Amino acid sequence: MQEEASGQKKAAVVGVVGRTNAGKSTIVNRLVGEKVSIVSPVEQTTRNTIRGIVEDPRGQLVLLDTPGLHKAVGPLGRLLNGMARASSAGVDVLLVVFDASHEPQLEDDGWMRRVAKEAPAKCVFALNKCDRSPFYATMFRDLWKQIAAEKDAAGKDSQPACEPVWVDVCGIKPHGCDALFEALFGLAEVGPALFPEDIVTDYPRKLAIADVVREKLLQRLHDEVPHEVGVVVNDIAEKRKTGWEVAVTIYVNRPSQKGIVIGPGARLLKEVRLCSEPELSDMFGVRVKLELWVKVVPNWMKNNRILAEMGYLGSEQ
Question: Was domain 2-190 assigned CATH 3.40.50.300?
């Protein structure tokens, strides 16, 4: 308390977890104040752990945006679920995001039971989409009471369930963000900043470019195709006069998907390029020109080399 009174700043690594489509990336972008995570209504949009860095007069928060927990199908789905679960370990504060515009789902129950079992010292439950009606805040609170009571009744040798800080929030609007900031900084400890003040993410640029391209694809594709699309940045040629020329490969599983991704007369691929280039140019402060190629690789989601290039196996370029 004496250190806080002297004006020393705080710092914390915050693991942002929850089921897929709960709104984790939207909340991270809102708190950072810039877009660091791609957003779409498609499950598995976030496939890497992305660090968003918040600089505030109170100190610094490093937000780890993670893949959402979902019913895994195939090796990539299981890999993403493993990344999501691992992200809750070793953080200073655990932020669990729930989509409270729907009744609690199986994955929500699972995250609550994980929190009850592991009893993290510092935890925030964010009930997202509080602008919706109905808003099932009471059902989520009652579910937690039930799970915590079961945990506490399990035996004297087990550690009592922690008591999370509850916050109602709307990721697409400012509502609730001040309360969420207060909760996170309230749990942070006094300490030095973990990153320089002038950066909002340390996400590798190849992965960031690939994510933007994939976001634009997800916005235009439907049904099963988005889950079977992967994007790799093969090369960034930095031209002194013309900016960056970026070679990108889009992987699909089947020849029929290649035609869907390219679109009639290559229109869909052209739309993706034209929408991605201005956003990337603004993001990096340099003119970005994309060359997009679609490649069929059956079962690419089982190919460790491709998965490593996408950053899913810890190989960041």
Answer: yes
